[in-house]
Specification:
Helices cover 75% and strands 0% of the residues. With 250 residues, it is mostly helical. It is globular.
Length: 250
């Protein structure tokens, strides 16, 4: 199978996993799909999502809409396109870690599709931080900051996936326990290059440092509370990292 076909298969996996966008137009013919190998394109998908949301925000500002409602609609677009995937993980992790007495019970709660009080509080705070941070930015700044935040947030997911063992033996995250080194390095390089190309050096440095701290914090917290990572941990990591980066850049 050609390199181009493999790259196309990785994009299909990345887009299909991280968004609710259709991939039929890209998935033509027999392709060598591999979720683990597709991690290299996660920052690319995150950057494109962030840029789309930023364009909505900047466009609404040009129409005379105030910053706060414009930011709200921009984040709403992200939730719609991603299907609330990462936010669902944040809510589940908050409920499990907040309500469980031991690791087994925490993992059991995280499997429950119902959202408890800890999950509601976590979602509310995450949405509040992202909307207000975006609303504090001019439109031109958002067009640069949002794709960087999206790319770094997805790279943080990969870091957690690489650093922690699976907390349970089943689930999507457990099937990606062994990541190709080349794909992991490409993921970090792509996220770093996105930040370097779009931001001046001081802001790029700040964004990368904050993202690294967010990933380290989530690794430490997930290991302490759950003994490893799950899909919910990865989703929560993306939200926390995006909140942190947007806060630093606003």
């Amino acid at each position: 199978m050609s390199t181009l076909a493999r790259l196309r298969a990785d994009l299909v996996c990345g887009i299909g996993l991280l968004t609710r966008l259709p991939t039929d137009w890209l998935a033509r013919g027999r392709l060598p799909y591999s979720m683990a190998r597709s991690i290299w394109c996660w920052p690319l998908v995150g950057a494109l999502l962030g840029e789309a949301a930023a364009m909505v925000y900047a466009g609404l500002l040009q129409l005379g809409i105030a910053h706060l409602p414009a930011a709200g609609w921009s984040i709403a677009l992200l939730l719609l396109v991603c299907g609330g995937l990462h936010e669902d993980g944040l809510a589940d992790m908050a409920d499990g870690c907040g309500g469980g007495s031991d690791r087994a019970r925490k993992l059991e709660i995280m499997r429950d599709s119902r959202v408890g009080s800890y999950g509601v509080m976590a979602l509310g705070l995450a949405l509040l931080v992202r909307v207000t941070a975006l609303a504090a930015m001019p439109g031109r700044t958002a067009l640069l900051a949002m794709p960087v935040a999206g790319a770094l947030a997805r790279a943080c997911m990969v870091v957690v996936l690489r650093r922690l063992p699976p907390a349970r033996s089943d689930g999507l995250a457990s099937s990606m326990a062994y990541l190709p080194v080349q794909a992991f390095v490409a993921c970090l390089c792509l996220a770093g290059c996105t930040a370097a190309l779009l931001l001046p050096t001081p802001r790029m440095t700040a964004a990368c440092i904050v993202a690294a701290l967010a990933a380290a914090l989530m690794c430490r917290f997930a290991r302490w509370q759950l003994g490893g990572q799950t899909g919910d941990v990865l989703g929560a990591t993306a939200v926390v990292a995006e909140c942190a980066v947007l806060t630093a850049l606003c």
